[in-house]
Amino acid sequence: METLDPRVRVVWFLGALASALAVGVAVFVADRLALDLGVRVDLLVFVALAVLGGIVALLRYRVWRFEVQEDALYLERGVLTRVTSVVPFVRVQHVDTQRGPVERLVGLSSVVVYTAGSRGADVTVPGLAPERADAIQQRLRALAIESEPEDAV
Amino acid sequence: MRLHPLSAALRGLSRGLSVGTALFFLGTAVGAIDPPGGVLAGPLLGLVGFALGVGWELLYYRRFDYELTADTLDIASGVLSRRDREIPLRRVQNVDISRGLLQRTLDVAAVEIETAGGGDTEASLRYVSYEEAKRLQRDVGRRKRGHTGDAGATGDRTGQIESTGEAGTGETATSAVASGAAETGETMRPAAGEDDERAAAEGARPTTDERSELFALGTRNLLVLGLVAPDLRALLPVLFFAAPVVGLSIPDLLLDSGVLAVGPRGAALAAVSWAGSAAVTAARYYDFRLTRVGDELRYERGLLSRYDGSIPLEKIQQLDFRENVLMRRAGYAGLAVETAGYAPGGGPAGGSEAAIPLAGRREVRRLARSIEGFAAADLERASFVRPPERARRRYAVRYLLALALAAGVLYAVNALLGGVGAGVGGALGGVGGVGDAGALGVRSLLGYWYAPLALVPVALVAAHLKWVNRGYSLGSAHVLTRNGFWRRTTSVVPYCRVQTVIESRTLFQRWRRLATVAIDTAGSSSLVRRGARAVDADSEEAATLRETVRKRLRTTLAVHRHSATPGRAGDG
What we know:
The structure holds 2 protein chains of 2 kinds. By secondary structure, chain A is α+β, with helices and mostly antiparallel strands.
């Protein structure tokens, strides 16, 4: 089983920080306009959310596992709800690598696998070193082509 | 080919009227600002709008061209921006023909063609003559089946059919014999090497189009269907129109009776709405018949509007048995087929076309076997593994907590109001516009805050019923899952149709060592109908289930690949 690159925690934490900031600003505005509680609720909310985001990022990293097995891509993830997915290569429609702005900053990459399924139709493996992401994409593409495409639906 | 000439008139009228009315109201509104001269603005703009709408549709008709070639359907359309579309016939999932009352009297029809890609309907021909619609439906089906001598397409078909019928070939053959001897040759596919001869033979033999009726909904079953599965979406219109007819006023009824003392008038209203929504269901499925034509299923239904469509057998992703509580009591069931054609919730009957709206349970099973080549053993002797007993405890706890919460909230409100005195109650009543008497009524009712606790036995029974109706079963060729008490759905997924397997465990499930396994196909499940799921299985069993489904997918596909022709193009 492979784990993700440790730097993915930074990506997740920065994401959580951004949303904490957004909520904090909203609370700040609401407090100024209407509530006027006197305490710095905005700051409290921001710090609480940021700490929570940090904890979740750490836990999520500890749970995340994936493996390119002989017939399928196998993933385990989820902090509160544990999710284990099996994506058979025969079902893969196409494979993307993606790099978001924060991921680029840290030097990481994601692989997105698409199937024709009605739910869970796309599966993302985040936090991969770019070389690893490319290798996985190549591998999945080869495996998907090797297994016959008419089976995809 | 052009559309039917009448479609210019039909489309023009409807578009003209809608644009005309919109502009009429706009004109009237604007005209009201300047009364003396403005009176004419509405009618004038309305006329202009009508003319514009008619003109647009006339152009649409003149610039619409379609052609059915040997292996594609080509459509060139568009008034201002043009679009040329080619749909490979082998990718076609469903061909649906619909005719409203007006279209029926004019003998024209709308044809809609679905493929697995995209959210919308891929091709919509409004309108062609009914004869032409049937020709399209027939020819799309026939050419897809490789009558043009296209070896690739034929090979593809062989593989697909084998992929569904492999484990139950014997069963398929017998049921096919039962439903029509001409089908036997169709169901029993030959070995791969014979493809070309086969194709040639089929080309020469016209009997492949032979029809055999699988199912027709009789009058008695139609009535039963209406009564046990009334169309609740029709409830509002029914209340609106039917209630005044029987001399009932709903506002009066609500005002003078309250919930508990409805009495005979309420009963009459209930009966009327039941009958009304039953009639809507009955009209929808009037004269329903399901026919098998070669490799396709054809359905026809409808009293006022007629619908008929084709579902290729090789594209069927999963089957759902649907039985609501009334149907189960009376020994009936319904069957739905899922293809990858419709977008979630977008099909003619909301996602998937009912293969059989209602029939006796044994009849439904017999039909299911003949439709998909089911291994009979998977259906007849499906032994469902129920969730462990702690799952039932979980449901009971969940319902009891909900009741406790309701009682707690009522208690808190009661204590709050009682503590502060009548002043607050009166104020609240005043805000609500009910007045002091009303507020007093509410407060005396709040005295019974513990009333929800009376439902504790109901909650326990409900937990048991939920538990007892859940389960999964691993068959030789299919995995079955079952859920729901009020509307029980049993999903049957062939291993070879599985897309992904997703096992999830929420925090609460992990406490009780439970897990949910979702078996995803390319069918059109939505938020409401969430596909095949084994809910709250023991977590070790769930892991086994996940791995078993995965392994069986691999082995079934390996068998097909072994027996299939090489060099096939993709499907789906």
